[in-house]
Structures are given as structure tokens and as C-alpha cells.
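From the shared-data thread, chain only:
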Amino acid sequence: MGRISGIWIVGVSLLLTACSAAPASIAESEHTGGLPAEAITATQDSSGRDLAYPFPTAGWLDGGARFAVVLAGSSSCPAFPSSIDVADAYTIKLGLDTRGGPNCTADMAPRTYIIKTPSDIDSSGQVTLLFGETTVALPPL
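Structure, as C-alpha cells:
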């Protein structure tokens, strides 16, 4: 009986460790839907738009102190920004992860994440935001 209890305790400990190691969102806040009305976005042209995403996918907030990014996907297993990397003063790379599962709905629900702009980003020039397979230009402020 002692051996079975010991195995059970080790198994539960490993499960709890694995759950606590799951990536977390780097966003300050998030909400369902698109960008806030006050977001400053680049002018979109019809030639480069992906019809699956008929909305702006990123914009500046608070005079460049923050930016918002819209990710679309399953509402029950949403993608979220899990890491941020500054490639140079004008390029931000966001790592994405998902939560939920293993069974995800097959809908396309937009979810917006508000992220603090890294201090080494120069918002006076166009900033390129890379996330997943998407590239978005944030306009100069």
C-alpha cells in the first residue's frame, strides 16, 4: 500500500509541476472583440488584406506606451501572446501560444491583447509587428 501511495504522490506532483510550467500571457489586459476605437492603425490597402481577418490586427494606444494586437481563432482555445522579442528599434516579434483544449470549437473569434511597448522601440518610425505568420505595420507616431 505504501508503494502505491508513493507512486500516486509522485504522479500528482509531476502533474502539478507540468501545469505550473504552462506559458502565461504577457498582455496587461485582454478582451473579446476588435481593437479599441482609440487605437492608431496604419492605413490598410485592399491588395494586402487577408479576407479571413477583415479588421485591423494591431494599433498603438496611449501615445505609443502600449499597443493592441488582435488574434483570431477558436473561442474555446484562444491564442495569446506568450513572449516578446525586440529584434531592433523598429521590429517586435511576439511568440504565440494557446490555452484550452484538447477539444476546440471551429469558430473565428477575435480577441484583443493590450501589451506594454518595450522601452527600446522607437515609435517615431514605422514599427513592424510579427506574430505567427502575420506581419503588421504600426504607423509612426
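The longest strand covers residues 79-88.
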